[in-house]
């Protein structure tokens, strides 16, 4: 632990030395606004930031100054400046996966992002992982968005995104620790609530009710096969979510996801079916405290445990969720902030079972530069009981 303490001290000195450095991410640069307008702290979105994204990365009833090039062709929309931004994460960790050693994960992430309006009510967004955990990971989020179809609050997204995005966005969380239930896969099934390719419809009512419908391949975002097909079988997965704002400080939602996939082992073939459903809840006090709650129950039928097995489990039940508390003492003007994240998974497949508690503290020394440290205690069926400490830097520019 002496080595970890030394790392923390060195990182703090480094950030203090550069605390006067200033950088402006893509949307802030484009609109000449502070990152604070949409984030608190970066990358966590404020409600105004959610509205900005849902409106095709533009502010309602306004455009960025001189947004398009004047070409004299009313049917051509070319952005005057191509919006591009970077996210740069550097971490140091001790006892990852119960391996009693320190590790410099520097960089852990280098992400190139771009998004904006390409025509009236048509926008795009993508990011490219130039480096993720030491490898070129490629494109994850990448979609075209059609905003306000038929002149109502109906949006269509086509591309790849996370199935869990309408719930809580993993890519925008403050903690290094993840929302584990969203990544859980049962047996050799591909389906979870992380990335997939498909289409998503979102519809908002003036009553504060939002409805989301998704249809996707159901097997993640792996490369196409030799026949240039991304979907590995003939089935599609479907999800739906409805949520309701309750006053200014609460939101409650219900989610369901179901589908079928053809899976193969060395000995047998199975058409595996799954159903996932559960509620979610967000409570907030002013802009100081936010509590996010997620519970999901999953049933898998005709499940193959692994590719070397010939036995099919007729039904496997899994449930889990997380509770996340975020504390920003001065709202979007907070420098110091804190977070607590509790994860749990309970499954008939015992190797999936785990509980973890994360304590996270950070300081936004610039709007787009954040220092954090966190400690996670995990009780895992597979890895045992252990603690993990992380200190890191997240910068956007």
| Biggest sheet descriptor | 16 strands, antiparallel, barrel
Oligomeric state of shown chains: single chain
Strand content: over 45%
Please write the string of helix (H) and strand (E) elements: HHHEEEEEHEEEEEEEEEEE
Mean pLDDT: 85
Structural class: mainly beta
Low-confidence stretches: 1-24
The side-by-side strand order for the widest beta sheet comes to: 1-2-3-4-5-6-7-8-9-10-11-12-13-14-15-16
Tally of strands:
16
Radius of gyration: 22 Å
Number of helical elements: 4
- Report the helical percentage: under 10%
Broad shape: globular
Distance between the termini: 32 Å
Layout: helices, strands, pairs:
Blueprint: H1 2-17, H2 26-31, H3 47-54, E1 85-94, E2 102-119, E3 122-132, E4 138-146, E5 154-162, H4 180-183, E6 195-204, E7 209-216, E8 237-246, E9 250-264, E10 269-285, E11 289-304, E12 312-327, E13 336-347, E14 354-366, E15 369-380, E16 384-396
Antiparallel strand pairs: 1-2, 1-16, 2-3, 3-4, 4-5, 5-6, 6-7, 7-8, 8-9, 9-10, 10-11, 11-12, 12-13, 13-14, 14-15, 15-16
Question: Can you tell me about this structure?
Answer:
The protein contains four helices and 16 strands. It has helices spanning 2-17, 26-31, 47-54, 180-183; strands spanning 85-94, 102-119, 122-132, 138-146, 154-162, 195-204, 209-216, 237-246, 250-264, 269-285, 289-304, 312-327, 336-347, 354-366, 369-380, 384-396. Strand 13 (336-347) and strand 14 (354-366) form a beta hairpin. It is globular.
Summarize this, please?
The chain has 397 residues and is mainly β. It has helices spanning 2-17, 26-31, 47-54, 180-183, and strands at residues 85-94, 102-119, 122-132, 138-146, 154-162, 195-204, 209-216, 237-246, 250-264, 269-285, 289-304, 312-327, 336-347, 354-366, 369-380, 384-396.
